[in-house]
Prior knowledge:
By secondary structure, the protein is mainly β. It has 2 domains: 3-80, no CATH class; 96-247, no CATH class. The chain has 1 helix and 16 strands. The strands form 5 sheets. Strands 1, 2, 3, 4 and 5 form a 5-stranded mixed β-sheet that branches. β2 (16-18) and β3 (21-29) form a beta hairpin. The radius of gyration is 34 Å and the shape is elongated.
Amino acid sequence: MPYEEMDGFPEERWTRERGTEIVTQYPLPWADRRTFVPPAKAGLIVASKSIKGVGRLSGVEVEGVIYAVYERALVEVTYIVPPEEEVTPGGIAAGWTFDKSWGMDVIQTGPRMQWRKGSGTSPDEFIEQGCPVLVPMCEWTVTHLEQTTYPAAAFKACMGRINNAIYQGVAKGHMLCLAPGVRGSIGDKAKMDVTFKFLERPYDWRKKFNDKTGTWDWVMTGKAPWTSGEPDGDGLCAYDLADFSALGVTTVPAGQ
């Protein structure tokens, strides 16, 4: 019967240093080759370990196959400097990208134009009523790259709803979950890019600007009685609350 080397032991290599890589060979009894734990080296980690049999060769038959057994084992260990944690230039975790785009929403108060009939020396004219209110907005786009699945249930639970607690540093009710997106290929090794979109504003999405008082007031749907204070998740407002943490989005840098 033919001899077969268990694990296909690689050829012997000399002990050497190569830049920050150190290769060290350790002679061991053949029986200890599996349980050998390489000694630690300061500032380095084990990158690979190989075993070569040396000395007189004999054989052990297992289920009709004779496996090689040597007198001693030569274990070769390669040490390297630990790689730095991969972080993208934006400071976000590896495998993620993000984009924040700022803009302004214009809220027109009162009727935009009104006809005024003149008298005497005053001509007929259109006059503008009220004034626009500018509301800063920030649209978030966060993408998880090369995934094999996506959180479909969380998409349905959060889309069109607002955050029920502080999320990514944004106050409760100030972040609206927009329609997400998934783009990928089909096949055994298909990978997808999963995109999450949010719209942030400095005022609670359950509030509307009251041009009569100049304040932001709760928007009621009239589904149930309400007196004052925050209508917290009772179906009174146009936007329902949701737990955005279920989406599994990584932490996005807040900036300075």
